[in-house]
Amino acid sequence: MLDNWVIACNHYGVGKGVSLTVRNLSPATKARLAARARRKGRSLEAEVRAVLDAAARERAPAKTEFPDWFLAMVEPGEDVADFLDARRRAHAPVRL
After folding, report:
1. Domain count, the chain
2. Phi-psi region of 78 (alpha: psi -120 to 50; beta: other; left: phi over 0)
3. Chain segment 60-95, per-residue pLDDT in tens
4. Does residue 73 lie within any of the structural domains?
5. What is the pTM of this model?
6. Rounded Cα–Cα distance for residues 93 and 75 (Å)
7. What is the 3-state secondary structure (H, E, C) of the chain?
């Protein structure tokens, strides 16, 4: 039996079943997931499986490499030295 602190899911995929137990889940989170499942007409287990499946399909944002992110800040034909000089600020002295 599940209590407020654990959600256990058994997912049977192609050829092999996978189990996942989430411990120390807050009662509020479990209640929100259960309410979401009821709104969608499915079990708590099916809702957790759907949430995890959707999260697993998300793609990480493409990492932009230097100098690509820097060059995107500079207008075509703009001198990089002028660009940097315009953004330099004097720093207050550090007191130790």
Report:
1. 1
2. beta
3. 777 777 777 777 787 777 787 887 787 787 778 888
4. yes
5. 0.50
6. 33
7. CCCCCEEEEEEECCCCEEEEEEECCCHHHHHHHHHHHHHCCCCHHHHHHHHHHHHHHCCCCCCCCCCHHHHCCCCCCCCHHHHHHHHCCCCCCCCC
